[in-house]
Specification:
Length: 473
């Protein structure tokens, strides 16, 4: 009896010492996983669940919409039409969270096969559409995004965005579909030409604010350690509204390093990312056996410095990793990261060059042993013009909190939590809870911090359940 009392007391300490409240409990189907998540910050979040590699039987995903306080608003099923080897799915959400698109298309049939589109409003109403792919959509789909009135496909006309010479004359197409009936209009964009050469990176979508959509091209100057960014904004009909250009250079003693970057705040789906490319290499096998093909993602020059537009802060951020000497493809040393903030006119607001702590530099996978694409740098705008920055490699992350005037505070090394730190601070109750509970390797945590509270999404892969816990700020 005494042992039972002690066990119950210990459970009370774990359950109540952090002041959390269980807001939602979701029972998933057997073998279901979280396929995608979209963090809407102060508006809530969306989870897509299902079995992405299922061969037969039930072929559908479920869309879960959660409110800002963590409660579950609704769940809707979406039927999948293509088999797992031919399926490409995207979940696109408007910046205010009121329009959600789940899009399924053929992985190799953007312009000649059907697109299945499920359009949800934030109250769970659904309209389903089927779009026939056609050549006028363009050859290579770059990005998919939406606003309150339209869904957009951004594509290159001939698919030459990687070609060193032909990208100079490549054109972008803005394909616009009206949200109410998917009526279609095509707008070729009149943008400045990209110069030939591997150091010049083709246009990509970096964000939006209302009817303005921002596109960026960049030139990477490795010798002068200077990146030049050209940013244009277009309206919903593809007309150029504004143009901004600025340089973002490091000091003469620091040199750019490639990094992988992504954001869980997926208002946009970058189907083609010109910062990276895929390499195929055929290996030699034993006699009478088929040869093997190795597929790997490698950085282009575009991975040596990134730019994004933050609607929340209404500014541009340039960011990347750096090291002490010019980059080499083997055994280049990494030292830290940089973040530069620019206003809408391209004027610098502040610049941060953060040397890695001893704890970070003691990690050999970050400092020297990792491949060029193995280090991720994640940047997430948070409230009060602050930022959350995270360096990730392997199963280790180093989160930082960046103040509104560009001062960094390292939170410290965290393990097995690559997707967990979304704007959380060192003192957060949710982080303390996750660190306490993280001994279970079958449970995966994602933490979200908004103005009202902190949320923890706990996915138990063994039990196939999702729990959402709320912690008061």
């Amino acid at each position: 009896m005494k042992s039972l009392i002690l066990l119950f007391a210990s459970l009370l300490v774990i359950t109540f010492s952090f002041g959390q409240e269980n807001k939602a409990h979701v029972e998933l189907g057997r073998y279901d996983v979280i396929v995608n998540k979209v963090i809407l910050q102060n508006q809530g979040f969306i989870l897509v669940t299902g079995i992405p590699n299922q061969v037969g039987g039930r072929q559908n995903y479920d869309i879960h919409y959660f409110n800002a306080d963590g409660t579950l608003a609704w769940v809707k099923p979406v039927k999948l039409e293509y088999g797992m080897n031919n399926r490409l799915t995207q979940t696109i959400v408007s910046p205010n969270g009121k329009n959600i698109y789940f899009i399924e298309m053929h992985a190799s049939g953007y312009y000649d096969k059907k697109h299945y589109i499920s359009h949800f409003t934030d109250d769970g109403q659904l309209k389903s559409f089927v779009i026939e792919g056609k050549e006028e959509f363009g050859n290579s789909l770059q990005s998919i995004f939406c606003d309150d009135n339209y869904l957009y496909y951004l594509a290159t006309e001939d698919g030459n965005e990687y070609h060193e010479k032909k990208k100079a004359t490549e054109k972008l197409i803005l394909n616009r579909f009206k949200s109410t009936d998917m009526s279609y209009k095509r707008y070729p964009l009149n943008l400045p030409n990209i110069e030939p050469g591997s150091e010049n990176i083709y246009w990509s979508f970096i964000g939006q604010k209302g009817d303005e959509k921002f596109l960026a091209a960049k030139t990477i100057d490795a010798e002068d350690v200077k990146n030049k960014f050209t940013i244009v904004s277009i309206d919903t009909e593809g007309k150029v509204v504004s143009k901004t250009a600025f340089d973002a250079g490091l000091t003469s003693e620091k040199f750019n390093r490639p990094s992988y970057t992504h954001s869980p705040q997926t208002y946009v789906e970058n189907v083609v990312d010109v910062n990276y490319t895929t390499q195929y290499s055929r290996g030699v096998s034993a006699p009478n056996l088929p040869s093997t093909t190795t597929i790997r993602t490698v950085p282009t020059s575009g991975a040596f410095g990134h730019v994004t537009y933050s609607e929340q802060h209404d500014c541009f951020y340039v960011y990347g990793l750096f090291g002490p000497k010019p980059f080499r493809s083997v055994a280049s040393v990494y030292e830290g990261f940089y973040i530069y903030k620019y206003d809408r006119k391209g004027m610098p607001s502040w610049k941060l060059l953060e040397m890695g702590s001893k704890q970070l530099m003691d990690e050999g996978l970050f400092r020297i042993h990792g491949t060029p694409i193995s280090r991720t740098l994640l940047l997430l705008p948070t409230s009060g013009n602050t930022l959350s920055a995270t360096i990730a490699f392997g199963e280790i992350v180093f989160p930082y909190q960046i103040t509104s005037d560009g001062i960094a505070a390292e939170i410290g090394k965290k393990e097995n939590t690559v997707a967990a730190y979304l704007g959380s601070t060192k003192e957060s109750k949710s982080m303390a809870y996750v660190e306490k509970m993280e001994e279970s390797k079958k449970v995966f945590y994602t933490m979200i911090q908004n103005t009202a509270n902190e949320l923890v999404i706990a996915f138990d892969s063994k039990k196939s359940t999702i729990d959402v816990l709320s912690f008061k700020n």
